[in-house]
Write a structure and sequence with these properties.
The complex is a heterodimer of chains A (110) and B (200). By secondary structure, chain A is mainly alpha-helical. Chain A contains six helices and one strand. The model of chain A is unreliable at 101-110 (pLDDT under 50). Chain B has one domain. Chain B contains nine helices and three strands; from the N terminus they run ααααβββααααα. The relative contact order of chain B is 0.13. The chains are: A mainly alpha (110), B mainly alpha (200). At the A-B interface, α2, α5, α6 and β1 of A face β2, α6, α7, α8 and α9 of B. β1 (94-97) of chain A pairs parallel with β2 of chain B, so a sheet runs across the interface.
């Protein structure tokens, strides 16, 4: 899959910022085979794949963790590669660090 | 934090003219200082939080949501003092499923629905310590030199810049958890909670 094309679609269709689309595209290019096949199906058809990894499905991650399909597939891949770490992290959940208000900041010492 | 400063002052440091400081050694010293600072904070946090009324599981279970919120605010006050930053308000908020807390630069939010639930007290203390660490990161970015390791602070600043924070909802759990501000906060809070031995 052409990385530039993936990045373009992530930005244009799925509204990832360009700097965020790049690490996502890199992760998608390195998916484990089982998850890669599921991703290819979704990328082509828009239909959620029927895949379960360590008890998690894409639908559950979307419904209960509010992930989009891409985030769900990336998470399934992590569960596939590092189940212990991924399970512990998912069990905790996630927080939300809101963007800093006030003056925008590029680096710490500008 | 007079005792913390005393501990730092006790570490012998070579006397060097400013223009003779090797940049690599300076960087290494900064990293070592940051690691030491973090270790000391974790130790102090475990000692301080053990004294917080309401942390004991049986006591926590008897509290209503207002009482629990007071306990969590006390935890944040203790952590802020240890970290040398101003404390922030802890407030219940309507957060989505799977979102245990949030930090918006000014206050720590805890999931209001969870506050009345049966989750173990360790989960809540973990949340406050985790989110408070984000407040520490935020303060460090705003106050150059507060944290000695410039590379760490630079990474935090970059991570918190508009458009750079990787939410779990959009980037998945791995990219979310491994970004600089989250990896640091996770590791820090885990060390404190493990030291306290609270159920999670």
């Amino acid at each position: 899959m052409d990385q530039d094309a993936v990045i373009a679609r992530l930005v244009n269709e799925f509204r990832y910022p360009p700097q965020g689309a790049r690490p996502v595209a890199a992760k998608l290019a390195a998916l484990s085979p089982v998850v890669a096949a599921a991703f290819d199906q979704w990328w082509s058809t828009g239909m959620l794949p029927q895949i379960e990894v360590e008890g998690y499905t894409p639908q559950e991650l979307i419904n209960n963790y509010r992930m989009n399909p891409i985030a769900a597939i990336l998470t399934l891949d992590w569960l596939q590669r590092e189940p212990k770490r991924a399970l512990a992290s998912l069990r905790k959940g996630h927080d939300d660090v809101r963007e800093r208000n006030g003056s925008s900041r590029i680096g710490p010492y500008e | 934090m007079p005792e913390l400063q005393h501990a730092v002052d006790d570490v012998a440091a070579p006397e060097l003219a400013a223009d003779s400081v090797d940049m690599l050694d300076g960087a290494v010293d900064g990293q070592a200082d940051f690691a030491l600072e973090t270790d000391l904070q974790v130790q102090d946090a475990v000692a301080a939080l053990q004294q917080v009324d309401g942390i004991a599981p049986e006591r926590w279970q008897s509290l209503d949501s207002g009482g629990r919120l007071e306990v969590l605010q006390n935890v944040e006050e203790q952590m802020a003092a240890i970290q040398g930053r101003p404390s922030v308000e802890v407030t219940p908020s309507e957060l989505g499923a799977g979102t245990y807390g949030a930090f918006d630069g000014q206050r720590i939010m805890v999931n209001a629905a969870d506050l009345n639930g049966d989750q173990p007290v360790g989960e809540f203390v973990d949340t406050i310590v985790h989110e408070g660490r984000h407040a520490y990161q935020n303060y460090a970015v705003d106050h150059p030199g507060f944290v000695t390791d410039a590379a760490v602070v630079g990474a935090w600043a970059d991570n918190m810049a508009p458009g750079n924070y990787l939410s779990a909802e959009q980037y998945g759990q791995e990219l979310y958890a491994s970004q600089p501000v989250e990896a640091d906060a996770w590791n820090y809070a885990s060390r404190v909670i493990d030291g306290l031995g609270l159920p999670r």
